[in-house]
Design brief:
The protein is α+β, with helices and mostly antiparallel strands. The protein has three domains: 108 residues, no CATH class; 92 residues, FAD/NAD(P)-binding domain (3-Layer(bba) Sandwich); 88 residues, D-Amino Acid Oxidase, subunit A, domain 2 (D-Amino Acid Oxidase, Chain A, domain 2, 2-Layer Sandwich), CATH 3.30.9.10. It has seven helices and 15 strands. Strands 1, 2, 3, 8, 9, 10, 11, 12 and 13 form a nine-stranded mixed β-sheet that branches. The chain has a three-stranded antiparallel β-sheet with strand order 4-5-6. Strands 7-15-14 form a three-stranded mixed β-sheet, with helices on one face. The radius of gyration is 22 Å and the shape is globular. The protein starts with 10 loop residues before the first helix and ends with a helix. 23% of the residues are buried.
């Protein structure tokens, strides 16, 4: 949900615009490593009442170049007051994306280590500071720059260095459903339907992803799943009747008293890029571009 973001200014909007611009070239670059990787669109966001329709109308008027259009209530897949269709918003399968990224990394001059970092410390040198990384396999190495993108585990590395960047966990659960009787208009559904805060994503002739819940903390509550199936109302009783073929959950790192994500050069060579909350996939290209700019500036300054 990049182009249908409510705000039209500020850092959050700039990051979304950057990512939306970069994603086509990213997919083109990564497809050789995972041919099934593709961006699936459009996205249709349903409005529950007339005030929501008015907000959608204002977005369409503000962004004529972004492929937004209003959809009348009678043309929406589910009962609602109306909808906002975004031709350039949608979804990318995150598992396929991770597969492509891993394959691309293997082709580059990149050394990977599957170890836990236990400690990060400064090491003073004449030119300034280097950063020592100590891992649980007993290894220790020095680096001119370190990028911390460890979500909820970032605080444990930063606090000994005097940087307080607390984050809270927000758990999200998703259902994979097999439908016994999809609605008659199933073939015309958008790639993503956003309704009452949930995403409904058709994945096949009779399959659907439904999610995600918003649950404070790190423990999944199964009652939230059944509530999510019921919350959409009587018009979607076919979802309530669906067979659950799978479910999973994940934790989002939400910054405390700070905007998400946290993108900061805390000290020369100490870069923080984490806390994306619910927009990790969306903001991947913009985050990578920002990190590259920080490293380029660091190299120009020190070398």
């Amino acid at each position: 949900m990049g182009n249908v973001f409510r705000r039209s200014s500020g850092r959050g909007w700039r990051l979304r615009r950057s990512s939306m611009t970069l994603w086509p070239s990213w997919i083109e670059t990564l497809q050789p490593f995972a041919p099934e990787l593709r961006f699936q669109s459009p996205l249709l966001q349903l409005a529950e009442d007339s005030s929501a329709v008015e907000r959608q109308r204002q977005l369409v008027e503000q962004r004529p170049e972004l492929g937004l259009e209003l959809v009348r209530a009678e043309h929406c897949p589910l009962p609602c007051a109306g909808g906002l269709r975004s031709a350039e918003d949608g979804w990318i399968n995150p598992l396929v994306l991770q597969k492509a990224l891993r394959q691309a990394i293997h082709q580059g001059p990149i050394q990977q280590k599957n170890v836990k970092v236990c400690r990060l410390s400064r090491e003073r040198v004449k030119a300034g500071s280097l950063w020592r990384i100590e891992s649980d396999d007993g290894d220790s190495s020095l680096h001119a720059a370190v990028v911390i993108c460890s979500a909820l585990d970032s605080a444990a590395l930063l606090e000994p260095l005097g940087h307080q960047r607390p984050m809270s966990a927000v758990l999200g659960q998703v259902l994979a459903l097999e439908l016994d009787a999809p609605p008659k208009n199933w073939n015309t559904w958008p790639a993503v339907l956003v309704h009452k805060g949930f995403n409904l994503i058709p994945t096949g002739p009779c399959t659907l992803l439904l999610g995600a819940t918003l649950e404070p903390g790190e423990q999944a509550d199964p009652t939230h799943l059944s509530a999510m199936q019921r919350l959409l109302g009587k018009a979607t009783d076919w979802i309530e009747r669906a067979k659950v073929s799978g479910s999973w959950c994940g934790l989002r790192a939400r910054p405390v008293d700070r905007a998400a994500p946290m993108l900061e050069m805390l000290e020369p060579g100490l870069i923080l890029a984490t806390g994306h909350y619910r927009n990790g996939v969306l903001l991947t290209p913009a985050t990578a571009e920002w990190i590259k700019d920080q490293l380029d500036d660091l190299m120009e300054t020190n070398f």
